[in-house]
Design goal:
alpha/beta, Rossmann fold, 10 helices, 9 strands
Length: 277
């Protein structure tokens, strides 16, 4: 990953400077150097590094292992430990955090270089696998809906429609809830807007033309086109996705769905109202 952002956490200023010079020589961007865990956490939250290089022994109240643990609670970022301690207890503590590397000081320049390259390569590979898994989940939902199109366009009886929507909701839940849990932070200060952008992106990836706005998203172009005008089941599926996924946020509120079939865009609006506001 040329140009990857790296955070150095090292309380020996000369060592930190040497590492920074090498990283920049290898084509990486050093987003900051910290001498304590507290400082590292602050820098990481602002710069969002792709990789952390940290000594285990640091100034302040926490060591490098605890620092990585705390940063990992905010976002998933690989870390390489650099330490003069090779004892079993230290390694056991470090291993729990699933580090991308563990380098014993003093180390050769090439040893650090290879560890950094390998950590970033594995990170990139993992992200590609996760993106492929996301696409597969979306494809599964879309394929399920498309495979049901003949039944939908044949005007199902009310009881059949209810059964289909129940099965669709179950399928959507099993395929999309894991993705929601990975991508939406329930502790976010603005979880409502984070969710709105997330669900808008889901609709967009399924073939809808969507715009997200504060507390709501608009469908400008429907995936089903004119078929939705003749059969309200298509609208009910969209409503099911919006309402079910909103429940995952844990927000005490409701979804209001306005649809304007046959009119100029936006065709549909989904507005999220939080109770008490």
């Amino acid at each position: 990953m040329p140009g990857a952002k790296i955070l150095i956490v090292e309380d020996e200023s000369i060592t930190a400077m040497e590492i920074q010079v090498n990283l920049e020589k290898w084509g990486y961007e050093v987003v900051g150097t910290a001498s304590s865990g507290e400082e590292a956490i602050e820098i990481a939250s602002k710069t969002l590094p792709d990789l952390i290089l940290t000594d285990i022994t640091l100034k302040g109240s926490m060591d490098g292992i605890e620092t990585v643990e705390r940063i990992s609670k905010q976002r998933d970022v690989p870390a390489i430990y650099m330490t003069a301690h090779s004892d079993a207890n230290t390694f056991k503590r470090a291993k729990v955090t699933k580090p991308a590397g563990y380098v014993i000081k003093p180390f050769e320049e090439t040893e650090l270089k290879f560890n950094v390259e390998l950590a970033l390569y594995n990170k990139e590979s993992q992200e590609k696998e996760e993106n492929n898994a996301d696409r597969e989940r979306l494809k599964a939902v879309t394929d399920f809906v498309l495979s049901s199109t003949p039944a939908l366009t044949s005007r199902m009886r009310i009881q059949d429609t209810a059964g289909f929507l129940k099965e669709f909701a179950r399928f959507f839940q099993s395929n999309m809830k894991p993705r929601f849990d990975e991508e939406v932070d329930p502790e976010s200060e603005d979880i409502l807007q984070d969710y709105v952008e997330w669900i808008a992106n889901v609709f967009s990836n399924m073939g809808y033309k969507v715009e997200s706005h504060p507390g709501e998203f608009w469908i400008q172009e429907c995936f089903w086109g004119t078929r939705a005008i003749d059969n309200k089941v298509f609208c009910l599926m969209c409503k099911a996705m919006a309402e079910l996924s909103f429940m995952w946020t844990g927000i005490d509120g409701q979804v209001k769905h306005d649809y304007r079939l046959g009119l100029k865009p936006p065709i549909c609006k989904f507005r999220y109202k939080v109770h008490g506001e």
